[in-house]
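Q: What structure does this chain adopt?
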Amino acid sequence: MRSVRRGTAWSCVLGLGSSLLFSSLHAREPEPSPVWHDDATSRLEALALLQSLNAELLSHPSATLTLERWCGEHHLAPEAKIIAERVQGEDKPLPPEARNQLQIGADEAVRYRRVQLACGQHVLSEADNWYVPSRLTEAMNHQLDTTDTPFGKVVQPLHFRRQTLSAELLWSPLPQGWENAAALPGSTDATLAMPQHVLEHRAVLFDQSNRPFSLVVESYTSQVLAFTPAKTRP
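A:
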């Protein structure tokens, strides 16, 4: 499956939404893959759903609210409420190209935050955020260091915009070029194997002076498909 890439900039407030909750913990263990039967119809349905979710995420400013709607529409939890869970003690190094994307030198300090967005028992997204503290206010840095307040809420006074660098399907239920093949993959007695992460978005946040101050990588999990496919429902 080819990557879907967009370079347009659009406004976004990360982690904002009236129903967003926030807590701090160690990362949850990966959940078992959703149980889908391995047949051509299920594979087509899974691919269509992933493409639909990708389009929704790209066309709406808040990933949190988009996931909340997705959770409600697909009955992933008794209550469609996203909880943002900050993961402590799992720092990741800055990606090699990030200093160019953030327009900073080799000695510029960069800090890191990681959160998981969950609906009920399902972690739907994991987000890695690298930010430049010198481009935030002292009060913002203090709040980020000492509280679990969502990053987007803390930096909202910057009136920032978001530029999407890439949106990529990490897994396709169908093989490359399936639309030109004579037949779709055959059915098996097994369940459809899914990886932990199925979709990835990368974006840079810019302040009003057009200075980049944050790089975010959002990895969406196969738990976005953790519901019974329509054709197998009673």
